[in-house]
Amino acid sequence: MKKIINMMVLMILCISVLAACGGSQGKETAVDKEVSTGENQKTLILGTNADFPPFEFREGEEVVGFDIDLGKYIAEEMGVKLQVEDMAFDGLIPALQAGKIDFILAGLTVDPDKAKNADFSDPYFTASQMILVTKDNDEIKGSNDLVNKKIGVQLGTTGDSLAQNIEGAEVVQFPAPYAAILELQNKKIDAIVLDLEPCKRFLEQNEDIKMLEEELTQEEYAAAVQKDDKELLDQINAALKKAKEDGTYDALLQKYFEN
């Protein structure tokens, strides 16, 4: 009889343990996963596209830039480790939706279409779209001259959307801006529509291209998180606010931008 009672007690204990383990399993996002550092510190996975200087670019094997430093600050404020995942720009939102990354910092413009699939933080940078042409091009002097022209853009960007709406334009999409620069230099496209700050960097590196004065847009960059992830969004907004208050934001502007 004692053996039977002991076995029943053992079975009850086993069932209780299994129930407790099962009850602790919930929906896991990337930020819930622990890093094997020996300290059980959690990691925050940042998705970006390292072809967009000075916001994100490569120095050797390392991804660096304004957005990356900002991401490190956010992670530090949250008390977690930052992991940077470099991927194609048009793959960032799908990766966010799939839970492969926790948030995006990639010179990402706030727009209604993207807002259907992600939630945006408070804006952290004001940008504009510009036109690049070769220095010997005297035909294209502004946006009106892009009608019926062959225009290079980075796939999935604001420049891509703008170019699609230009009458008669043939839009050539590239995975990275530098590929469009090469095609422009080889006279295979007539112009490029791209964000102002990357345009400045490409002008420094290529003496045979020029940027027109006309600004095609005024837009805001922001971080993006999964839809309805209010907890992470609030933490990011709090960190962005603190960065502007404690001088970190201004220091990053001075580090990466001339003006």
Write a structural description.
The protein is α/β, with parallel strands linked by helices. It folds into two domains: about 30-125 and about 220-255, 3-Layer(aba) Sandwich (D-Maltodextrin-Binding Protein, domain 2); about 130-215, Periplasmic binding protein-like II (D-Maltodextrin-Binding Protein, domain 2). Helix content is about 35%, strand content about 20%. It is built from nine helices and 14 strands. The chain has helices spanning about 1-25, 65-80, 90-95, 110-115, 160-165, 175-185, 195-205, 230-245, 250-255, and strands at about 45-50, 55-60, 60-65, 80-85, 105, 120, 125, 130-135, 150-155, 170-175, 190-195, 210, 220, 225. The strands form four sheets. A five-stranded mixed sheet has the order 4-1-5-14-6. It has a five-stranded mixed sheet with strand order 10-9-11-8-12, with helices on both faces. Helix 2 crosses helix 8 (about 230-245) and helix 2 runs antiparallel to helix 9 (about 250-255). The longest helix has 22 residues, at about 1-25. Mean pLDDT is about 90; it is low at about 1-30 and about 35-40.
Question: Which helices and strands appear, and what pairs or packs with what?
Answer:
Blueprint: H1 2-23, E1 43-48, E2 57-59, E3 62-64, H2 66-78, E4 81-86, H3 92-97, E5 103-104, H4 112-115, E6 119-120, E7 125-127, E8 129-134, E9 150-154, H5 158-164, E10 170-174, H6 177-185, E11 191-195, H7 196-205, E12 209-211, E13 219-221, E14 224-225, H8 230-245, H9 248-256
Parallel strand pairs: 1-4, 1-5, 9-10, 9-11
Antiparallel strand pairs: 2-3, 5-14, 6-14, 7-13, 8-11, 8-12
Helix pairs in contact: 2-8, 2-9
